[in-house]
Amino acid sequence: MDSMRDRFAPVVTRLLDEDPRVAVVLAEVGADRFGEALRRHPDRVVNVGIREQLLVGAASGMALAGLRPVVHTFASFLVERPFEQVKLDLGHQDVGAVLVSAAASFDWPAGGYTHMAPGDVALLDTLDGWTVHVPGHPDEAETLLRHAVAAGDDKVYVRLSLQSNAARRPVDGQRFLTVREGRAGVVVAVGPMLDAVLAATEGLDATVLYATTVRPFDADALRRATATAGTDVVLVEPYLAGTSTAAANDALADVPHRVLGLGVGKAELRRYGQFDEHLAAHGLDARSLRERITRFTAGAVPAGV
Hints:
- The protein is an alpha/beta fold.
- The chain folds into two domains: 4-159, Rossmann fold; 177-297, Rossmann fold (3-Layer(aba) Sandwich), CATH 3.40.50.
- Helix content is 36%, strand content 20%.
- The chain has helices at residues 4-18, 35-40, 52-64, 75-80, 83-92, 120-124, 138-149, 194-200, 219-229, 245-251, 275-281, 286-297, and strands spanning 22-26, 45-47, 68-74, 98-102, 130-133, 155-159, 177-180, 186-190, 207-211, 213-215, 232-240, 258-264.
- The strands form two sheets. The chain has a seven-stranded mixed sheet, sandwiched between helices. A five-stranded mixed sheet has the order 7-9-8-11-12, with helices on both faces.
- Helix 8 (194-200) links the parallel strand 8 and strand 9 (207-211).
- Helix 1 (4-18) packs parallel to helix 7 (138-149), helix 3 packs parallel to helix 5 (83-92) and helix 8 packs across helix 12.
- Keywords: Transferase.
- It comes from Streptomyces albogriseolus.
- This is Transketolase.
- It is an enzyme of class 2 (transferase).
């Protein structure tokens, strides 16, 4: 199976062919994947070099000129390093772009901490009006990329990862999906965490929701699920632990509830290791998730009892 990033360039190249508003802005990373697109659309494929602040600034200028820029590099260089430009050039000027990241929280451990960005979604949460897609499969990434580009002039972040679920789901760019129904707790699995959550909750009487669009947060889906499964909620996110706990608390503000946010810890892991070792170290492998979810929901009273 190809990866989400493998799917990215061909999809965006087709979008360049289909829509004269679409432009691509790169900062060297991934430029080799757009050679054919550059030949066909030299005026709408721009590589600014290793200048991430310029990457976002150039995209905002294109947006002001009426284009729909798709902006791509590693997450740490797309959200964290040029955050001032994301805040001002896009947000303050009220123009949109599609930011598409690679490397996720720690897809490339050998790259070190400079190439890790577990805080990217939490950082965007400090700004207004961002839609955030976190696909869990390459087919979902293609669907959500097309949603993002077609979203008028909105500000959209698409978070790609090498981690992938085995099967695609029918995502629509808006709602959470109900994957499993139970009566003793709700587990929200975000993007590529779904397979691990399904393995972790096998045999447990829990509802599992699948979230690939996390901003806006689907409060209605969570409320419907807790009406039958009780109000113990576990969020399993592939980025900073607790990123969505405030959104879940807001969704359930009028009912007694408990929320546990699981994700990447704040403590820096100072050894490269392998991707799976980082998952386990942060307690995001299926065995660790089962222990943590079971401990949290132990003694929970099922809904309707």
